[in-house]
Amino acid sequence: MSLTRFLSIFQTKVAFAHCDIPCGVYDPHNMQMAAHTIIRMTELLGKVDRKDEVKAEHDIARITRVKEKHGDLLEDELGTLENDYFKPEHFSEYPKLKGLFEKGVKASIKARQNIDLTACEEALSITQEIAEIFFKTKGVTPVRVKSVYPTEREIVTHK
Amino acid sequence: MLLTRLKISGHSMEPQIRNGDFVLASSIPYFFSKPRKGDIVVFKKERRLIIKRIDQVKNYKYKVLGDNKKDSLDFGWITRIDILGKVFKI
Question: What residues in A contact B72, CB-CB < 8 Å?
Answer without folding.
Answer: 20-21
